[in-house]
Amino acid sequence: MTAYWAANWPIWVSAFCVIAVYTYLFKDNALYRVMMQIFIGINLGYQAIVQWRDVLYPQWWLPMIDGFKAIFGGPGSPWGALWSLVGVIGLLFYLQLSRKYAHLSKIAIGITIGIGAGLTFKSQFGQNIPQVLDSFKPLAPAVVRPVPRTVAHLPGSIYPPTLDGSLAFFVTRNQVIANEVLGGVELWRTTLPSTSTGPVTVKGDEVDVPSVGGAVQIDRSTGRQLGIHIANGPQPSPLPGKPQSAIAVYRQPQLAHGVELIPNGSSVQARATRNGVAEGVYTGDLLWDANYPEPIVSVQSFDGVALISGAHESAIWEIPAPQAKLTLRDYFDNWVSVITVVCVMSYFFFSFRRRGPVVVAASNMGRWLLMIGFGAFFGNTVMTRMSFLLDRLMFLIDDWLRPFWHAIFK
Amino acid sequence: MLKFLARLDVVPRRTIYIFLLIAAGIPFLVPIRLPMYIWKETRSAFDATQVVQPNKVVAICSNWDPGSQGENWPQYEAIVAQCMVNHTPFIVFSVDSDPVSPQLAETVNEREAKKYGCVYGRDWVNLGLTRGAPLTMGAIGRSVKSVFQHDYRQIPTQNYEKLPLMRRVRDVRDFSCFWVVQYQPDLNWVVFLDPNSRVPILFACAGIGSSGYYPYLSSGQLKGMVVGTRGAAEYEVMLRDKFGKRFDDRELRGQKLVVPLAFGNLVIIVFIIAGNIGTIARRRLEAQAKVFR
Fold it and tell me: What ipTM was estimated for this complex?
């Protein structure tokens, strides 16, 4: 039993505190108030220490002291000393306590409010604009599928273009063209001494193009021809056959490896490669298809776009995110959502007198819908409060009573 | 009969407390299991945490404290268990929270690490507490190490021998997803952390404020959400379905708490109905009394 007490006395203290606080449920009493004050005191003391140790000391004090040391010949940057100004501005708040200098505290208050207003402005836009856009919901199935948008036109290539960082290298029969891939700006164009026989290979600062006369070496940044590597050069390769499909690279990580772009003659189909890339979409489902003006040589994808290449022209397509396949229930939900938005807005619109049966009915409906919404809030409130009670109940039963029971009757 | 029903209108609150204690206490003493329905937002959150790209980490803003541990503790446990059973590295930090938040998070991290053989510095790092949201949110997105120069154990975050995980954590692009575990998570994370909105943001919140976050799920600003103890229990069920025996759910609270929660809610519902019946009965009695007068 001694071992039990040695190990479990903090549990008894905790259990006593919990029960003392819960005595408030019976009625307000001194024990409850003592506990409350102890809790507030401990919390404030702890906060002060952590605030200094984790925030002020590493992020304000140390850089400031290092700055002053640097001014007097120490290592580091002397600019850190400017952190002392932050301390001065912070101390201005305390001038509220002085009648004579209280006006100086307005500097600190003004700075704080200014920063707060700016951040709130940005925050409200960032939070609410997508909400406004989302309030326009599809109320019936769409007639057309989403289509990719062409963001840039690039030169054609008879072989799959080679991507290297922000550049793409296109090969025509007797030319190599380097383009900045997303902007579509042409950097250089070099004429080959003989017919090209394969796609470009990039080796550091050098670009190699296989051709009938040997591998032509070109400077990557200027397009200047450096030489021709004839001996044991790559064998002329035939024109590429059926182009390979590409996995769409989206910016959203949850779509990774979820969509395949499949070239088929002069069109591209996007199909899901796994279930759930969008709601109601399963493996193999057609997400969209789009035509290209000529037979496609290759399809490649990177950073939210696809590079579609033909012999005469290439294009950068912004690939649309997979659209959810909505069910009847989803459309019903959307109707409810739109009706709720309209009705509740009509309830809160005070700029004109509500007249006419439609407006009055919408307004009344808005009030009812609000009440249903508040009901959901209330249900969640009960659930949360209950969870908090259960957490303490679990502590009292599992951590306090059960071990004590075992210690007595083991 | 009407007189008896009218008495339901004035049930003393202490009676309700006693019923509540009995109903909620029974499942702690007698193990009872209830079937779980997995909600869509919980599954989305689970899937987003499961899809981890190479060299990326799960980032968790653990802002829960003793005041909200009833709901946030089981949620945090489940998320950490998923990372550890998957061997997905994660970083934890607290922003503008109660000072004990990093300590509470570390208690859970260390307990779960023992189950799955995870090592501090390699599999997870606790970066401690900082303040100054929402400016800090943007700063974390731009450079994690400039905000957290040392971790919770006072090891410098540039010390890659002790914290090899921090070598690959630079900014928000190194996060595969971002969790906020808090009583009422701050929506500013959606705006300030990642201006390009590439990182899925997931909330684990108390049930009380969850209704306000559903519009953000619908608009795609949030990719998933775990609501209260119920969400934590669903998460545990999904973990068990996904990982089978590899997932060790001993000491996890979600499923332990959800049954008493259901019983407690049932008692509240019964008393709400009884109270309404009582009010109607009392009014009828009053009406009858007026007629007889």
Answer: 0.89
- For an interface test with A, which of B18, B191, B257 has the most A Cβ atoms less than 10 Å from its Cβ? B191
- Quick one: pLDDT band at residue A274, thresholds 50, 70, 90? confident
Are residues B269 and B149 part of one domain? Answer: no
Q: Is A327 on the interface with B (CB under 8 A)?
A: no
Say how many CA atoms lie within 13 Å of B46 toward its Cβ: 25
CA angle, B210 then B43 then A250, to 5°: 105
Task: Give the number of A-B residue pairs with CB atoms closer than 8 Å.
Answer: 152
Task: Using an 8 Å CB-CB cutoff, list chain B residues near A131.
Answer: 215-216, 219
Q: Of the spans A51-55, A163-167, B146-150, which averages the highest pLDDT? A: B146-150
CB count in 10 Å sphere of residue A229: 14
Domain range enclosing B286: 2-31+258-292
Alpha-carbon gap, residue A82 to A262, rounded angstroms: 58
Do residue B213 and residue B278 come from a single domain? no
Q: 87-106 in B: which are within 8 Å (CB) of A?
A: 98-100
DSSP string, A101-136: TGGGHHHHHHHHHHHHHHHHHHHHHHHHHHHHHHTS
Q: Out of A54, A119, A391, whose CB is closest to B128?
A: A54
Out of B51, B223, B228, the one facing A387 most closely (by C-beta) is B228
CATH number at residue B126: 3.40.50
Question: What H or E segment, with its residue span, contains residue B59?
Answer: strand B57-62
Q: Does B194 touch chain A (CB under 8 A)?
A: no
Stretch among A238-242, A395-399, B202-206 having the lowest mean pLDDT: A238-242
- In a 3-state reduction of DSSP, which class is residue A410? coil
pLDDT digits (tens, 9 = 90+) for B28-78: 888 888 888 999 999 999 999 998 778 899 999 999 999 999 999 999 999
Contact criterion met (CB < 8 Å) for B265 and A58: no
Whether the CB-CB separation of A229 and A287 falls below 8 Å is answered with no
Give the pLDDT mean for B226-242: 95
pLDDT at A235 over 60: no
Task: Inspect the interface and report whether the beta carbons of B211 and A252 lie closer than 8 Å.
Answer: no
CB A253 to CB B199 under 8 A? yes
pLDDT of residue B38: 94
Task: Please report which confidence band the pLDDT of residue A409 belongs to, taking 50, 70 and 90 as the band edges.
Answer: confident
Domain count, chain B: 2
Helices and strands of chain A, counted as H and E runs? 8, 16
**A49 and B99 in contact by Cβ < 8 A?**
yes
